[in-house]
Each structure stands twice: as C-alpha cells, then as structure tokens.
Amino acid sequence: MITQAPRIVTSRVGLPDSFTLERYLATGGYEGLRKALSMAPADVAAEVNKASLLGRGGAGFPAGRKWSMLRKATTTYLVVNGDESEPATFKDHMLIERDPHQIIEGTAIAAYATGVELAFIYCRGEFALGLERLQQACNEAYEHGALGAEVLGSGYALDIVIHPGAGAYICGEETALLESLEGKRGFPRIKPPFFPAAVGLYGEPTVVNNVETVSNLPWIIAHGGDGFTALGEGSSTGTRLFALSGRVEHPGWFEIEMSKTTFRDLIYDPSLGGGIPGGKNLRAFIPGGVSAPWFGPDQLDLGLNQDAVGQAGSMLGSGSVVVMDSDTCPVRAAWRIARFFYRESCGQCTPCREGSGWIEKIMHRLEQGLGREEDIDLVLDACDNLSPGLAWPPKQTTICVFGPSIPSAIVSVAKMFRDELLVHVKEGSCPFPPDTVRRG
Ligand SMILES: Cc1cc2nc3c(=O)[nH]c(=O)nc-3n(C[C@H](O)[C@H](O)[C@H](O)COP(=O)(O)O)c2cc1C
After folding, report:
1. Which of 210, 196, 258, 202 is nearest to 51 (CA)?
2. Which residues constitute the domain of residue 253?
C-alpha cells in the first residue's frame, strides 16, 4: 500500500539550497534540538525508545536500546557512520549532500541524550561534495551557536569533528571504523566486547549510529515518539529510505512508510520504481544490500518490515533493493557480488581472505561457461567453510560479519537458479545477453 506518510528525513532534499543553514532554519531546523535541550537527557532517550527507531545502518538494532547500553564513564563518545560503501546503497550519500544540517542536529540530539561532549561524523572519503557540505554545515552550526561551549545557550557543550574515510568498505563495520578513526588500519576488532557501548573509541564507551538513524531524531523529538510509532507497524516504525536499483524504470531513493509498503509497491508503483522496463518479468530481487539472501517473485507482497523480512529468510539490511529481470544473468550477478567481497576483504581472518578468493574464482569460471557441474558443490563447500551450515542468519568463522555475508548471493543462486548454472556448464558459455559493465 502506498501511504501518505510525511517525509521525515527527505523533507527538504528537493530544494536547491537544502544544504544551507538559511534554508534549514527557514524549514524548522534546530527546533528539535532546542526542544531536546529543554528536556532532561533521560527524557530525550525515553522518547527515542518509545519511537522504536531501528538502526538504519544494516543490523537494525533499536537506537534507544543501544544508547541505554552505554557504559557509565567520565568520557564517552558518539560516532556517526557515514561510510556507506556497499554496492547499490546510496541513501546516506544523498542525505549527506542534501541535508547535512539535519545530520548535525540529529548528532547533537543523540549526543545530548547520551551525555556525550565530543562526537565524530565519519564520512566516506570519496563523497567529495558531501564532505565539503558537511564541513560547511558544521562550521555554520558553530557560528549559529548550535555547537560549541553553549549549545543554543543551554549550558551543554558539544564539539563535532568531521572525519573523512579513506575508501575501504570494511571501515563501515563499526569496530573497523573506530580503528580507522584512531588512525590505524581499518581492521575489525576482536569480540568480545561485542558492543562499542562497552569499549569503543580510544577504549571509552562509544555509541555508533548510522547517518539516516540520527537524521530521524529532529523529527522524533519535535513530533514525539508516538508520532513516529503512528507510522509503520510492530517494531518497524516510521519511514525508511530505500535505494532502488537494477532493472526498474525509476531507479533512485524513496522514503516510504515501513511495514505498510510492500516490495511490489516499491518496485512496480508508478510513483516509486515504476516497474521493469520493456514489461519484462521479475527474476529475483535483493531485499537489503549485497549481504542479503535473494527473494523471488513469491516474496513481492511482503511488507518492508524488518521482522517479516527476517522471518522470510533475509534482511532489510542497508535498505538497498536490487531488481533482476528475465534478461539478468543471476550467475553473473552473484559473481560480481563475490568479486566485490573478494576485493574488499580486509584479509585479517583466513576463512574470509582465502575463501572470498576461491569463491570469486569458481563463480567466475561458472559464469564464463568454463566451469564443471561439480563446481556448484565446490563453491557451496567453500561458502560452508565461511559460514557453517549456510543458514540465515549466518554462523560466523570470522571476527566480523563481512565473511559470512559472502555466501548469501551464491547460496541464493544455487537454490533458486541451479538450472541456469547447469546451462552455463552444458553450453560452455553464458546464455544471457551481455551487460554493459566491464567484466574480468
Ligand atoms: C562490512 C560492514 C560494513 C558496514 N558498513 C556500514 C556503513 O557503511 N554504514 C553504516 O551505518 N553501517 C555499516 N555497517 C553496520 C555498522 O557496523 C553498525 O552496525 C552501524 O553503523 C550502527 O548504526 P545503526 O545502529 O544506527 O544502524 C557495516 C557493517 C559491516 C559488517
């Protein structure tokens, strides 16, 4: 169902000067922060808890609960994750470029609620324009008095540092991000401790939240947690940004009400994806980023609800939906995902460092028609070494979930498209039309 939900995080992105302080103030900017500062920090956190705001970075952990886990200490930090480097995920990039003040305000609200006085926004280094606008917004926020020694004259002090990443996907994983922030190589940290809320940046308790997660906070404080839970259903409340790509008429990002909108709405509705070009049939879609198991046409009527998608065997993850039509070679798609993981593996854990390379090689030869039938079991065996049992959610043999995410696409192809894999083997070539992207 397409609903008339308000646009919470994208209310000003269509305006040509959406990123300026002037426009931000003219459209209610910093009012959520002002209201938060008039409340006790615990009440701000309680409001966010009530909103059931699920993290938008991938794991979907409730923001309020995460904040409550912050270990009591003299120094605590907040880190906002704007690394966004996953293929097909492009919603934070847009928020960073078009509404950087909303991120600054959301960061300030989260920092106030958790008692943090120094926050960092870690922004993917390749977002040149985004970094420029984020830094500009940060400077303007200081001049406006929304940051600094007296945030909006309240007596609360907050500094925000904008930090560029250097171009590694793994630095989006929160503990690798903290290492990178500390100036070290972006290697995920050994767990336990499982959460940076216990031991985080410089060994101090740290909250890590995604850019879109904090962008919701000004609206939640202005409209109350109840206003947010009035949208969506169950624990999937509010709206969410989805990045839609692949074989659709209108690829792009869409902010839609959670739970009530279905994948079918997102892909086919003329106001959203607009359907598949040329009236072709849907072959499969990835419901939540390249780490997620794939869905077929049978799952089109699932609502965009975290629990429902989880129960159906996948995840909403980073909110990117990739559509494959009847002309898309699923083997090629899985190989290209495997290639991405192979290139981006940080190399710290042997199953991931070595396994990603084996999986990429076997998938490549299968896609090129140079594979053998037994390669299908061989690649699944390599996947099983990374994630024993090939179940969902995946079991882990590595320090972080990067490695166990690699099998998702491969297992999906083996389960859903075994016939297509066998045609590649029997014909000695790929039966699908070539795509326009460089291969090899
Ligand atoms: C390999 C990998 C890459 C990740 N990349 C990102 C990212 O770019 N942005 C992000 O917010 N979270 C990313 N995450 C999830 C973070 O570890 C973390 O869960 C998230 O930033 C927490 O914010 P949230 O609770 O607001 O979602 C990644 C996780 C993994 C394992």
Report:
1. 258
2. 232-325
